[in-house]
Fold this sequence. Notes:
This protein is an alpha+beta fold. The protein has helices spanning 16-21, 69-78, 129-135, 172-181; strands spanning 6-12, 36-41, 47-56, 59-65, 86-89, 95-97, 106-107, 116-118, 186-194, 201-205, 208-217, 220-226, 234-236, 239-243.
Amino acid sequence: MSGEERTVLRVSGGTAAEFLQGLVTNDVARLKDGLVYAALLTPQGKYIADFFLVPDGADILLDADAGQAPALAQRLSMYKLRSKVEIAPTDITVTRGLGEPPEGAFADPRDPSLGWRGYAGQPGEAADWDALRVAACVPASGIELTPDTFILEAGFERLHGVDFKKGCYVGQEVTARMKHKTELRKGLAKVAVDGAAPIGTEILAGEKSAGTLYTQSGGTGIAYLRFDRAGEAMTAGGATVTRLP
């Protein structure tokens, strides 16, 4: 079982690695070590989609959120110009499990607690993936990751999803500036949640907006917070919210 709906795109052609290297946030050369987690950004440095790059012989697979995959393929095609690459969907199924990866599968590069991902028919395992994701403060496509997201605020450096030495890619200038010239004043954080509140509920510190509450599991949640307002006494709907260390 995957715990999520995924589509696998195939990028083929003699210049597939060079093509993606100039577009995505991470270093494609890392494929020699396994999966590479990365994102495609706007020129203004905002999130379009996140995905895993998967080595597959001379080709590179993109393991992407199923809802984002068609627009992602279209966006990548816009950048093709004269590059000798083809971008096409596949019928590959993504499976997931915990523990050591079986033969042909790969460790999830975001956090060791998220186990492995398989692309060659490895039997998947059932798990509470949302609980694992919340515990590791790992954002999900379309929930914590939205078109307004700056990836450093979403923890991409901690999740090994961005490389600051690889050179230029779309949105690199803004991302590098946030890394080197500013202190993050907003971002995702784990919170304790006493009560219940729907995903997307505004978090208040007194009468001031302090952020948004997202995925929750077992009394813990992921929240996007304004750090200067994230005190101890916060509420989200009928729930009490406290930032965790």
